[in-house]
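Hey, resending since the last one bounced:
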Amino acid sequence: MGSAAARSLGRRGVPTIALDQFRVGHDRGSSHGPTRIFRLSYPDADYVRMAQRALPLWRELEEEAGEELLVTTGGLDAGRTADRCAVALEECGVAHEWLSVDDATSRFPGIAADGRVLLQPDAGVCLAGRTVAAQVRLAAETGVDVREGVEVVAVRPDGDRATVETAGGRISADVAIVTPGAWASALLPDVPVTAAAQTVTYFRPVDGGASWPTFIEWSERGFAWYEVPAAGDAPGVKVAEHRPGPRVDPVKGPFQPDPEAVDASVDYVRRRFPGLDPEPVSSETCLYELTPDEDFVLDRNGPIVIGTGGSGHAFKFTPLLGQILADLAQGVRPDQSLRRFSVTRFSG
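The structure tokens again:
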């Protein structure tokens, strides 16, 4: 969210300083690594519409960056929630179709679906690490002052301005956009965002030439298994479960992959993906920044703009979120309602 907002403000000619406590591309957040899922399919029409708005903005970002950042593969949804996804897609006029087990197996032999699946052809893979790097580069090219290795310890209103306290000194600004990721509780104590570790594991395809879509298998309780095709710098096909992992201290960790989560992924690959070698290639962790309802927080309170609570599904909206946060910083009404993303929803 931070790199996207910096790029948007830079394109608008707004004098901007962008701070990162680490180096761009670090692995202590939820935006690092090679791949994330892009999808229009959601069991919620609001998010479908946001993804529709985000897709052309991704293409615009690619053109500006001069590199591929979103690889279209198509995407499958399985499980009972897929029916709700189909309803939301229909409501928003998004192309989709149901595939029988035989049709799905014929088209995607690496996946062993146990029932009909929903195909949405515009889904694909965001090249996450490349995207963040590209947005920071583009922001710097438009004059944004990018400062790496600067730890922010506090952000507070100061009259009608904002004061940003860093480990190296104080910065005064008209507006501060706070996109703290897993550090939200330290900088935004009144926003109920918790940090949780998520383990993801990569597997090697048996047939290197086979076609792989994204795949989400929804469970009854809102959790889901997912698969992300190998793209960009990915060491293989990524498989993991979208389930809040153990809470962690973003400073102290632990940051090592959870062996039980890796074993669960191996078992799932054996059951669902005959096209993958079940021996893991590698595993890594990322830090989820979870809100209680898994909706984002996109809001402004005086001179402080908040962008947090990605909850493991925000990356697909990257260029759109950058525009929204820039709009809020400039006092411009965003193109869509942000009521469900208001920080005040937690106060009563």
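The chain has one domain: 2-346.

Sorry for the duplicate.
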